[in-house]
Design brief:
Layout lengths: L38 H25 L6 H22 L7 H17 L3 E2 L2 E6 L4 H4 L3 E11 L15 E15 L6 E14 L4 E4 L9 E7 L6 E15 L7 E2 L1
Parallel strand pairs: 1-3, 2-3, 3-4, 4-8, 5-8, 6-9
Antiparallel strand pairs: 5-6, 5-7
Helix pairs in contact: 1-2, 2-3
Length: 255
């Protein structure tokens, strides 16, 4: 039926459809991907995990001692909260995003600390300054706290070549890991953070995991000294940061 004079033509029902310039139909708005990782969910779960770990430590020190060492219980509590977040993401039809790598790192730290593998220090501030590969063993573990890996001892690379570098693995559940690299020695740091940031003090760049879609983790390979590395460090942090600094710090730029 022809509409009355003055009534615009349009889709069924007689109402005109949306139009752009010169009567061109507007493109429909982009559809939301309901299966993509939820940034808000990831950050909320990470925050709850950090609060849970902190409350566990405070309870042990201020209220009542826990049956097991707080440094062993706190990562387990954080792991449990993150695991619940992964389950919740699944129930909502979302991908887990950065929660999965965080859970894996927390699980490794919890198991390593409980089993006493490597040079384990489950809580507090720890500095490692290896003078030879035999001192390192399977690696270093820190449940909660700040760890410093000092690679400046010249004896560390004595007798080593590019084909046989020193390999060091460091796992931190919650906290900060600082890697101090020497001048004149080729070092490669393979850094991975579930939630937090990686600071490259060698090239003056900071990469934040929170800037990625869905709060996913961040990985970065940092090289220092030039040439094939004589030391390769695998630095893993669940919640916190990895900082690679030469023996002279300078300003970093946020990326």
């Amino acid at each position: 039926r022809t509409p009355p004079a003055g009534q615009p033509h349009g889709p069924a029902g007689g109402h005109p459809g949306p139009a752009g310039p010169a009567g061109t139909p507007l493109a429909p708005p982009p559809r939301l991907n309901l299966h993509a990782p939820s940034h808000a969910l990831t950050l909320s779960v990470v925050g709850l995990a950090m609060v849970g770990a902190a409350v566990t430590v405070l309870w042990d020190h201020l209220v009542h001692p826990l049956p097991a060492h707080a440094a062993l219980v706190a990562p387990a509590v954080a792991l449990g909260i993150v695991a619940l977040g992964v389950v919740l993401a699944g129930l909502l039809g979302r991908r887990s995003g950065g929660l999965a790598p965080i859970a894996i790192i927390l699980a490794l730290v919890s198991v390593g600390a409980a089993a006493g593998h490597g040079a384990a220090s489950p809580l507090g501030h720890q500095t490692w300054r290896p003078a030879s590969a035999t001192e390192i063993g399977p690696g270093y573990n820190l449940g909660i706290g700040d760890g410093i890996l000092d690679l400046t001892d010249p004896q560390l690379v004595a007798g080593r070549s590019a084909g046989d570098p020193v390999n060091i693995r460091v796992d931190v559940g919650v906290g900060r890991l600082q890697v101090v690299v020497p001048s004149g020695t080729a070092v490669e740091v393979v850094a991975s953070v579930g939630a937090g940031n990686i600071t490259d003090g060698v090239n003056h760049v900071r990469t934040s995991a929170s800037g990625n879609a869905g709060g996913a983790g961040v990985d970065r390979v940092i090289t220092s000294g030039g040439g094939s590395p004589l030391v390769v460090v695998h630095a893993n942090v669940g919640l916190g940061s990895v900082e690679v600094e030469p023996q002279g710090q300078s300003q970093v730029v946020t990326q």
